[in-house]
Specification:
This protein is mainly α and 258 residues long. It has a domain of 52 residues. It is 43% helix and 3% strand.
């Protein structure tokens, strides 16, 4: 039987413990030592810890965002200029601290806006008051951002959270089950975009995610498409009525004849 893994883990553990800080989080160390392949550095141990806990990372990132609050003068906008940091689609979570006008610079997380400390940690365990000026992401916020932008990658964990039951029918989830946003993201953009930024993040996080069977998902998507079509027709009718009812230069309404 090959001893490669044992030899590799022995070297990795020795390297990790050699540089281990006395204030290194015990939960992260315990996690690292339980892995099939032990991470050889403290930073990799932190990254592995959060990568295995996307739901916890999601909660933490949203809590840190609530602590930072919405920057004064910010509003959710879309754009295609990469230099200003605006997202091109409403499917990407709003991130004011990624925008050039509101970025807090090195040492602050571009997702939540809070200070980043050693090893990408979110609080100052070392109590020296010195953010890591080489970092712009918390280790937890990296995982949270991946969770928000690619929830199907975490299908297995979301299934376990629901005890492998379809969120709409209550039946057992099949292999073809899919991740769905309870409130669709187009509705978030059209109906909720004026809400405070920290509250908006919940629409991409676990509170708005569910796993449903493919048939139920197709039915839900069809209902949403019909609703969008109905809204477009109503908006078009309203615009036509406004155009016909617009006053002329003399203040008289446009006459409408049969």
């Amino acid at each position: 039987m090959s001893t490669w893994r044992d030899e590799r883990n022995q070297k990795a553990r020795a390297r990790l413990e050699k540089r281990l800080s006395a204030l290194f989080p015990g939960c992260v160390l315990a996690h690292a030592l339980r892995q099939p392949l032990i991470p050889p550095t403290q930073r990799r141990a932190v990254e592995s810890y959060w990568r295995h806990r996307p739901l916890m990372a999601d909660r933490l990132a949203r809590a840190l965002a609530a602590r930072s609050g919405q920057p004064a003068g910010w509003q959710w906008r879309l754009g295609r200029d990469k230099e200003n940091g605006l997202a091109a689609s409403f499917r990407v979570p709003p991130a004011p601290y990624r925008e050039a006008a509101f970025a807090r610079g090195p040492g602050h997380c571009c997702v939540c806006g809070q200070s980043v400390y050693r090893l990408g940690w979110h609080c100052d365990l070392w109590d020296d008051g010195k953010p890591n000026r080489n970092a712009t992401w918390h280790a937890a916020c990296v995982v949270a951002w991946q969770f928000w932008t690619a929830p199907p990658d975490h299908l297995r964990m979301l299934k376990l959270r629901q005890q492998r039951r379809c969120a709409t029918t209550g039946r057992r989830l099949l292999k073809t089950a899919e991740v769905d946003h309870r409130v669709p993201l187009f509705a978030v953009w059209s109906e909720h975009r004026t809400r405070p930024w920290p509250e908006l993040l919940a629409f991409w996080g676990a509170p708005n995610l569910q796993v449903i069977n493919k048939t139920a998902h197709l039915e839900k998507c069809a209902d949403e498409a019909a609703e969008r079509a109905k809204r477009r027709m109503l908006d078009a009718d309203i615009r036509i009525e406004e155009e016909w009812a617009a006053p002329l230069a003399d203040g008289n309404p446009i006459p409408i004849s049969g």
